[in-house]
Amino acid sequence: MKKLIQPIIFIAAMFSLVSCASSILEEPSTDKKEVFEYAWKTIDERYSFFELKNIDWDAVYSRFEPGISNSMTDEQFFDSLAVMVDVLKDGHTGVTSPFNSHFYIGFFTRGLENYDHRLIVDNYYHSWGNRKGSFYHTALAENQVGYIAYSDFSNSFTDEDLDYLLTKYKDTKGIIIDIRNNFGGSIDNVFKLTKRFAKEKTLLYRSRTKTGPGHNEFSEPVETWIEPADSSKVSYYGKVCLLTNRKVYSAATMLTLSMRELPNVTVVGDTTGGGLGLPIGVELPNGWQIHFAGNQILGVDGSPSYEMGVPPDIQVDMKKEDMENGVDTIIETAIKAITSN
Question: What is the DSSP letter of 157?
Fold first, then answer.
């Protein structure tokens, strides 16, 4: 099956895709055993990455269920649910209550930081100046390379913003797009960006959704393609380097997965943090919510492994000696990749 792009909101979607456990007219349950059973079973039937992550969810039940009782305070119960969902090691999982909210953030601790904002400001921007919409930008390597930083996919931008930037740097040898430390946001922005660098219709990824309670019960994969931007908008087909690190997550990982399919794009830096399962929210009997990934985004090759992170084409870490001398090793590697040949 094929489909064209259908925008999805990653983090924001969690609160608009809530399935209610009970009518709003019913009194929320105060039985913590009941709430725990509902939370565990819902995740068991609807979470999408048990097999990929080799998680024994029955063992998780055996570990946590004996400690749940109505003698617990709400805070203690909340903490127990939070620790339980953290077993999934997924940044799209969490628990929300009227008094606290918890999400797993350990996805980026599996690698180096590979980013120093102050170093870039002091040694590449030379002042925190050029900004167009949600993008910071400057020219590097004696104006041979354009540099565009986009730090948050929750921040919107216009077609006019992209037209301006791609026109400004159209005569460079290449453009660097830095999305390091970008935790994601709206996937719509992924496609708005990607189509500006696509010269022809391109298959970006496949996706499948849970169709049953079994851990491996999914729909058949559906293909998602991108069409090039129409001729009224500015496009760029020269060399592009996309800079990534472990804090590139969710929609930002989606951009990495998508852009890597374009022949003029090279991903430089570290493997992303992953997060390619669309998060859904489910209301518990006590009125709280749990959040978790309910589908799988697969690579063009059909693999779900990119949930754990999209690897770069050029693996490079920030070097301590470079940083001490005001040099961003990843930016310099990208400049070299663009200006060589």
Answer: -
Q: Which two tokens stand for residue 205?
A: 């990824």
Which of 107, 127, 155 corresponds to the end of one domain?
A: 107
Residue 133: other Cβ atoms inside 10 A: 15
- State the DSSP string of 192-248: HHHTTT-SS-EEEEEEEEB-SSSTT-BPPPEEEEEPPPPTTS----SEEEEEE-TT-
Q: Is residue 19 part of a domain?
A: yes
β-pair partners for 136: 131, 149
Report the 10 Å Cβ neighbour count for 82.
Answer: 19
- Is there a single domain that holds both residue 125 and residue 217? yes
Both 232 and 316 in one domain: the answer is yes
CATH classification of the domain holding 261: 3.90.226.10
Strand partners, 209: 295
H/E stretch holding 118 reads helix 117-120
Measured from the Cβ of residue 118, the count of other Cβ atoms closer than 10 Å reads 7
Give tens-digit pLDDT for 188-234. Answer: 999 999 999 999 999 999 999 999 999 999 999 999 999 999 999 99
- Rounded Cα distance between 60 and 162, Å, is 47
Question: For the domain that residue 50 is a member of, what is the CATH number?
Answer: 3.30.750.44
- Give 285-307 pLDDT, tens digit per residue: 999 999 999 999 999 999 999 99
Residue pLDDT, tens place only, 150-186: 999 888 899 999 999 999 999 999 999 999 999 998 8
Cα 184 to the chain's mean position, in Å?
Answer: 5
Nearest to 153 by CA among 37, 275, 241, 271: 275
What is the pLDDT, as a whole number, of residue 301? 93
Contact 21, 283 (CB under 8 A): yes
